[in-house]
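User: Hey, my collaborator sent me this sequence without any context and asked if I could get a structure. I don't really work with proteins. Can you help?
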Amino acid sequence: MPSPILARADALMQRRHLATADSEEVPVLTDAIDIDDDIPVLVDIAAPAAGEKTETPAAPLVEAAAPAPVVAEDRAVPPIDTEWGAALVEELGRRVEQRLLAEIPRIVATAVSELLAEQDTKAGDPQR
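Assistant: No problem. I've predicted the 3D structure and written it out in structure-token form, which is a compact way to encode the shape of the chain:
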């Protein structure tokens, strides 16, 4: 039993596929900027003016010390405010319950249809 939403999505995809079947070539924009215009583009490199220094001062090298190994005690989680933690746990529990309740009918329907299909397959196959 297909979902009406999936059926509509499939119909839209089929319609889109039929509309684009005649033009398989992807359009490419090649003449977006006329080179003769004086519009700077990203590939242009500005030449340095005469007498201008092009070197940048080098930053002094600093030797990086190896980071100290992290000890489990260093990463201890600070205690959570009990009122805030309780509210968080309650909200998470409520949301998980809502999602499970929304999914249970679909899961049961899928399991039943798979079981019935398996029974039909076994009934139609005399070798089993």
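In plain terms: DSSP finds two helices and no strands in the chain. You can pass these tokens on to your collaborator as they are.
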